[in-house]
Design goal:
alpha/beta; Rossmann fold; two-stranded antiparallel ribbon; 12 helices; globular; binds zinc ion
Length: about 400
């Protein structure tokens, strides 16, 4: 009996250690890159980081040989992964690798075609069926119709012409066309996307494809005057493909990848491609129809990040972290307990002798509407400081009048 308990203990510990090693990740992602007309050296590590942040993915990067290298040596074992991210726009893969990829998807593997992923492989029939629509690479009417929206109607346009175009980079509004799809469910129907290329004139077979979001390609920005497909889902065999045209990378990544709309739809699309469902929460900083939202280091800020920065704030600096704190409080506080959690954290900054006075002024302004008895004694203490007296007394007056 004693031995059994001992073995059981060892077994439980082993399971625990193995789970911990995997970081609790449920799905394995492989990012394919190494050749692209885009800055894949900046985009692929960012995509990896963004997947890891979900806590449900492990992620690896597979680099192809450089252009002109021996493509026969490029043979990733797709079957080991739940989702393959295509950050690749380069030379054809070997017939063997292509066949393995088709087999992987047919058997239920997930794929995400990211930005110029839909420029790739213009002559590979199966790949074009997987992505639904593509652009550039000599694509024309021979590859399938243009597909876009006019008002509420999807248009399948067989007109002759080249595939793929975009105007100047700008912020633009994205409109969800299916708010019940797992990827878009819970998102606002419209939101402003960060500065990016708006892909247009995509054409292809479009089989088993649904356009789940579009954006109006404004002629004033060099666009087509049509509502162009931005996010698509395709079924191929038992496999699921999520196609995002978003996320043009600069040398350092840049605004298209910093956009919370890009990050969130990419994370959700990858989970859907891997599993057919989406379990991730909508982040509090998701953009709205009123404006875009960026994460400068691609990471969701924590309350601690906001308060640390506010502690060091002076009026020459951006109020980004204060704005972030404000939207966090507004979106995450439903009950008095929720407000109290924020208030207690803010009081700690008010009581911190080394926190800046400018930072404390911002917090006093916020506490004047959302504070309670929790902050009164800390604010009274600040009222003794001539530099903070006005703001502190204003906050106390508002707090006592709201009772
Ligand atoms: Zn681009």
């Amino acid at each position: 009996m004693k031995n059994l308990v001992k073995y059981l203990f060892v077994f439980v510990m082993l399971v625990f250690v193995l789970t911990a090693c995997n970081g609790g990740a449920s799905y394995k992602a492989l990012i394919i890159t190494g050749q692209n007309n885009h800055n894949w050296k900046s985009s692929s590590p960012i995509l990896k980081e963004v997947l890891l942040q979900t806590g449900i993915f492990s992620a690896e990067i597979a680099k192809s040989p450089e252009k002109g290298g021996d493509m026969n040596s490029f043979n990733p074992d797709f079957s080991k992964y739940n989702v393959i991210i295509i950050d690749y726009n380069g030379e054809s893969w070997s017939e063997k690798t292509k066949a393995a990829f088709v087999e992987y998807v047919k058997n239920g593997g997930g794929v995400v075609s990211y930005h110029a992923g839909d420029n790739s492989f213009p002559d590979w029939k199966e790949y074009n069926e997987m992505i639904g629509l593509g652009g550039w690479g000599g694509r024309s009417q021979k590859d399938g119709p243009y597909v876009y929206y006019k008002g509420d109607k999807m248009v399948i346009d067989t007109a002759a012409g080249s595939g793929g175009a975009h105007g100047k980079r700008h912020e633009f509004e994205i409109k969800a066309r299916n708010v019940e799809h797992p990827i878009t469910k819970g998102l606002p129907q419209r939101w402003v996307h960060g500065t990016d290329e708006l892909y247009a004139k995509l054409r292809g077979p479009g089989k088993n494809m649904e356009i789940i979001a579009t954006a109006f390609s404004d002629t004033a920005k060099g666009g087509t005057g049509r509502d162009e497909p931005i996010l698509m889902v395709v079924n191929y065999g038992k496999g699921r493909i999520f196609h995002t045209t978003l996320g043009h990378p600069d040398k350092e990544g840049g605004p298209a990848l910093q956009c919370v709309g890009f990050i969130t739809t990419f994370q959700r699309g990858a989970e859907w491609a891997a599993s057919g469902k989406v379990t991730q929460k909508i982040p509090y900083d998701f953009p709205t129809a009123a404006g875009s939202s960026y994460r400068l280091d691609y990471k969701e800020l924590t309350l601690e990040d906001d308060l640390n920065k506010i502690s060091q704030y002076d009026i020459t600096k951006s109020t980004k972290y204060f704005t972030d704190l404000q939207s966090r409080i507004r979106k995450e506080s439903k009950t008095a307990d929720d407000f109290a959690k924020f208030e207690k954290a803010m009081v700690k900054v008010l009581e911190n002798k080394s926190a800046s006075e400018d930072g404390k002024k911002l917090l006093l302004r916020e506490l004047s509407w959302m504070g309670s008895d929790i902050s009164v004694s800390a604010i009274k203490e600040l009222a003794k400081n001539p530099n903070l007296k006005d703001e502190a007394e204003f906050a106390l007056a508002r707090l006592s009048s709201s009772k």
